[in-house]
Amino acid sequence: MSFNNLDTLYRQVIMDHYKNPRNRGKLEGDHITVELNNPTCGDRIDLQLKVNDGIVEDAKFEGEGCSISMSSASMMTQVIIGKNVEDAVKISKMFSDMMLGEEVDTADYKLEDLGDIQALQGVSKFPARIKCATLAWKAMEQGVEKEDE
């Protein structure tokens, strides 16, 4: 597949998650809530996590923002549900490294294993958009830290 075709595919995946977000809404019952915003561009996320015995049982989000931040939140919730907290944090670190253009540690996971998240690789070329892409991930990291307390 040529670079242009791959770029078009990735844009389609991002727009699909933006227009049809997965796990958008509110959790019922006991859960952790983290609210974060990106004052630079106005992105805002309200992430809710249900963690039991170290496993992320469910995750939902609400918020508003650009297609990058909202699609990243959608992708992130899909990936972390069912994972243990340790793996969710490893995936978040891997995603952060990918966004910063750093070498990605693939000892535990490969990018191909993470589904639609690969579509966000191109964001690393636009430094101003990296905070958009990582907002939900930072919220998740804060949420699982709260769970540990």
From TrEMBL:
Superkingdom classification of source: Bacteria
SUPFAM superfamilies: SufE/NifU
Domain NIF system FeS cluster assembly NifU N-terminal intervals: 10-132
InterPro entries: NIF_FeS_clus_asmbl_NifU_N
Matches recorded under PANTHER family: IRON-SULFUR CLUSTER ASSEMBLY ENZYME NIFU HOMOLOG
NCBIfam families, per database record: SUF_scaf_2
Name of the molecule in the record: Fe-S cluster assembly sulfur transfer protein SufU
